[in-house]
């Protein structure tokens, strides 16, 4: 587990998840310390990451959402070599494993749609060993409580979190942090 990354999340438990350059500009006016980059392509991801790093923030690139990148481990090598990203976000266990080998921070994203998906989390964590997991949709206090009791990986709740009440409810349920594209949550 990467303790520097965990400390950065604990210091700023609302994570800005940005999906456009306009959203990034607005996020950079907040006090958010960790930014999830959910947009871009192979040609501009280096510039996007550079903007985040120049502002002194932790830059996490969601590999599954960057146009032009595939789903093979070589994409992690590309991010490491050609950007200054601190880490990656992905749903794919092999990419998490490769990122850990390269010393990048890792967030494995899980969509909890039913009990089968919930049970699958434990199996995948046994092989991928991410620094943290992100669970979507984030507004599931009972599920977050069960998950934090089941696994020993810090949990980020993401998706559908829209206001201060949602943020506090998920943190109270045991989430270490929340990630949100909702700009109102960035300034709580």
TrEMBL record:
Tree of life domain: Bacteria
An example Gene Ontology biological process: glycerol metabolic process
SUPFAM superfamilies hit by this protein: GlpP-like (SSF110391)
Name this polypeptide is given: Glycerol-3-phosphate responsive antiterminator
Species for this entry: Candidatus Scybalocola faecigallinarum
